[in-house]
Amino acid sequence: MSSSETAAHDSPNYMAIFWWLAGLTVVEVAYSSLLPHTHKALLIIGLVGFAVVKASLVALYFMHLKYEPKSLGVIVSSTLILGCILVGVGMAEVLLPRP
Amino acid sequence: MDHAVALAHPVEEEVTCTGIVHDKMGMWVFLCSEVMFFTGLIGSYIVLRFASPLWPRPSTILNVPLTAANTFILICSSVTMVQALASAQRGDLGKMKLFLSLTLLFGAVFISIQGVEYYKLLHEGFNPHVSLFGSVFFTTTGFHGFHVFCGVVSMAYMTGKAFLGKLTKEHHQGIETLGLYWHFVDLVWIVLFTIIYLI
């Protein structure tokens, strides 16, 4: 999709995305400081969830991934899947019991 | 390609078989390699943290409120970047220059605040040699900071081009390509801030 074609679709409301990102950052910091760190699993799941939502907003709307051809989505997704495998193998090395 | 056809279709409008213009496709491929680079760094951090029985709570060492403010500044820079592109697409070159300048300013402020944070941490004795956390903290955030620095240098070049009148409504693909890099750096910071500073 060329620059002119990117402009052809309805431009997302960038300021709304910005306020969502700013608001989620405030909520994220509050969540981290208010939740007792003894609830480790809840803390990690919540914070990673916030980060995934924020990163998705940036990728989909600011990087216009939502409006690009599906082939680009496949290319980017395959990289993310490879990244997850890389981290997953490392985590398995740490968490799984050794024979 | 016939010369007349080439003139009718400027290089920046040529598309790949994926339907994406060449320089944008090139930037996406580069960003995919950057995803793997940062996955290596972030993955190492996660694995080391889970493998270490004793790991300090980041908020006891790092200045979370200052970094949260810095995160907000980087988010501001992303919105000004995308507004610069939207202005260029509308042909509003005045606003394009304004938003590019603001993006450059926000990027420079981000690096400056990170520099202040590093200075304070080093002054307090927290350095890459002091612990495993110190080592991975400075490596990961340092590489990200270097990426922001490269973005700021490129942004200065792009802003200079805008003020010299080399960017127009018809020829502004560079803004979109650089914007992709800039948003990616913002995206990586969103993940780093959560994993290193908050968890």
Describe this protein with a few key phrases.
heterodimer, A: 99 residues, mainly alpha, disordered N terminus, B: 199 residues, 6 helices, elongated
Any overview of this molecule?
The complex is a heterodimer of chains A (99) and B (199). Chain A has 99 residues and is mainly alpha-helical. Chain A has one domain. In chain A, helix 2 packs antiparallel against helix 3. The longest helix of chain A is centred in the last third of the chain and has 26 residues. Chain A is flat, with a radius of gyration of 18 Å. The N terminus of chain A is likely disordered. Chain B has 199 residues and is mainly α. Chain B is built from 6 helices and no strands. In chain B, helix 3 packs antiparallel against helix 4 and helix 3 packs antiparallel against helix 6. Chain B is elongated and about 55 Å long. Chains A and B meet through helix 1, helix 2, helix 3 and helix 4 of A and helix 2, helix 3 and helix 6 of B.
